[in-house]
Amino acid sequence: MSKFLPMSRQEMEERKIEQMDFVYVTGDAYVDHPSFGAAIICRLLESRGYQVGVIAQPDWKDPDSIRIFGEPRLAFLVSAGNMDSMVNHYTVAKKRRRQDAYSPGGKMGLRPDRAVIVYGNLIRRSYKHTPIILGGIEASLRRLAHYDYWENKLRRSVLLDSGADLISYGMGEHSVVEIAEALEAGIPVKDLTYLPGTVFRTDSLESLENPCVLPSYSEMQKEPLAYARSFAVQYRNTDPFHGRILAEDYGTQGYVVQNPPSLPLTQLEMDDVYGLPYQRTWHPRYDKEGGIPAFSEIKFSLTSNRGCFGGCNFCALTFHQGRILQTRSHESLIEEAATFTRDPDFKGYIHDVGGPTANFRQPSCEKQLKKGVCPQRQCLFPKPCPNLKADHRDYVQLLRKLRVVPGVKKVFIRSGIRFDYVLADKDKTFLSELVRHHISGQLRVAPEHVSDIVLSYMGKPCHQVYEKFLLEYSRENEKTGKKQYAVPYFMSSHPGCTMREAVKLAEYIRDLGFMPEQVQDFYPTPSTLSTCMYYTGVHPLTMEKVYVPKAPHEKAIQRALIQFRNPANAELVREGLKMAGREDLIGYGPKCLIRPKKEEKRAASKATAGAEKPKKTGKRKTIRNIHKKKKA
Question: Measured between alpha carbons, how far apart are the two ends of the chain, in Å?
Fold first, then answer.
């Protein structure tokens, strides 16, 4: 019990701590594992000699829940948890979810909506002058003005609404240590305006060196295109090497200023972070509720990398982890795998070795670690950059080493792989070993759509690339004699997807001969390029107009088309086909998606019968007349 960070006054006293240096308030249950951001930041600060206490899921209606450790000596750290609280609470249809995988027993309702705002204000009511630092994905992606899907409006930076002093955005290891050292040195929090990876408020820009002033909040509220222009500037300044200082004007409330991102972690730093003394399980207080459901997904999985140069437009990684790959060493990962074998629950199966994209183990080109990523172009979209270094050798060697760790029977890859990156590698060793050793019957891949128009708005490769990958995947399976399948994930209602494009996807699924069990309707979460398109109706990097399916009914139709074989979707599918002018797909032919309604069938029968009736009637009358004449 004493090996966990304190969660109560009693645990604090057992450690003989008189005053905490930092109190970390989180919307998640306390799981002491490096897959949970709270555990990483707390253990990192502890390793630097600071006393840290954790308040997990406080009762936001009770001020006493935030006072259990008293006032910290240096600051409160606040995070909504591993997920944005609104995404955690609501489906894309804005319906309340039934379970929270990051709460004990999956119980819902243990954190508030817009958690960092609520927690920040709760703390500020009790401690007027104690520094409050926001962090985690919710604060990171809402650090400047952002479109809020749940209120369908532009909201201002959470820094202003929460009463906090600073935001530590991104993954936070570098910035939180620099904040701690500055506060320890006696520098007032209001003077911490120079730290990379932070956002602060100021009344004047005079002391800043060449800031880039974004459109004002009031201007963006009046004109969505102003937000598109602002987003484009932000998007091109997410790199620590050439990112500029960005300032957003809030009128009488001054400016919210974003410093350039922190530098990515080196491999040694990554190894140090993942080698901290985590207990690698949930706090014992959750045992009676059955633990934390999300933990079972990662308990025997290995995080081998961070960041992603894939550049999918619907993903927030560009704004949070960044596009520069950061990796752990083989030794660090093998050491963690060895700890699995000592766990009585381990059955010999490592569930995953990956990250945002499993098969990325190095920056996309050699210049990125010195000069950063290109602000005006992507590494893989629309085609792989000529400078791209597609190389799986390091990943293959890592997987081979993990397979022979004593006690390990099988090493699976369940994180997504970029199939276009696989194709870009001329050496097919990885694909061969993936098929032979690292999947179990099914490979999950994410082509997302089949329309090249939609794929271009997603920032994904054209459909032909996916088809080529399937051919190579099939050949490798034939070599092994295995019958393994690729299970594609598709997304409905993404910006750019008209009803005709949705029908095109349905036809592709028809030809595959299966019905996807899971369909992801596009979810406009904060700070993604696709969300900006959804709100503004334009692509922010080109300012070209984009068709956006927004009406809930239209979105329901597009989703139903992907699962057209489900009888419950029949009416929606029929309506979608008519909207797209594709009534040819309603009928009994082999290419039809749906059968006619009974009413339509009867009407067709009557029309057919009516057309034949005159002939039959005339013939009968003629026969009757003949009989009458014979009798006469």
Answer: 114
| pLDDT confidence of residue 623 | 38
Angle at CA of residue 301, ends 297 and 307, nearest 5°: 100
Element (H, E) at 609: helix 598-631
Backbone angles phi, psi at 482, to 5 degrees: -90, 150
**Inter-residue contact 297 to 112 (CB < 8 Å):** no
Q: For 513, left (φ over 0), alpha (ψ -120 to 50), or beta?
A: left
Whether residue 614 is preceded by a cis peptide bond, meaning omega within 30 degrees of 0, is no
Torsion sign, CA atoms 477, 478, 480, 485: positive
CATH homologous superfamily, domain 7-256: Cobalamin-binding domain (3.40.50.280)
Distance CA 198, CA 469 (A): 41
In 3D space, the residue among 575, 4, 609 whose CA is nearest the CA of residue 284 turns out to be 4
pLDDT, one tens digit per residue, over 368-383 is 888 889 988 899 999 9
Whether residue 379 is annotated as binding a ligand: the answer is no
What does pLDDT average to over the chain? 93
Question: Per the structure block, which two tokens stand in for 470?
Answer: 């399937």
Question: For 91-145, what is each residue's pLDDT tens digit?
Answer: 999 999 999 999 999 999 999 999 999 999 999 999 999 999 999 999 999 999 9
DSSP 8-class letter at 252: G
Question: Tokens representing 453?
Answer: 């128009």
Domain boundaries, the chain: 7-256, 481-602
Q: Is 532 annotated as a binding residue?
A: no
Strand order in the sheet with 442-448: 442-448, 485-492, 520-521
42 assigned binding-site residue:
no
The total of other beta-carbon atoms located within 10 Å of residue 128's CB is 8
Torsion sign across C-alpha atoms 399, 404, 407, 410: positive
Cβ contacts of 300 within 8 Å, gap of 6 or more: 340, 343, 346, 349, 350, 351
d(CA 338, CA 280) in angstroms, rounded, equals 13
Q: Does the reported pTM lie above 0.85?
A: yes
Helices and strands (H, E) in the chain, number of each type = 24, 22
- Spatial separation of the C-alpha atoms in residues 76 and 23, rounded to whole Å: 5
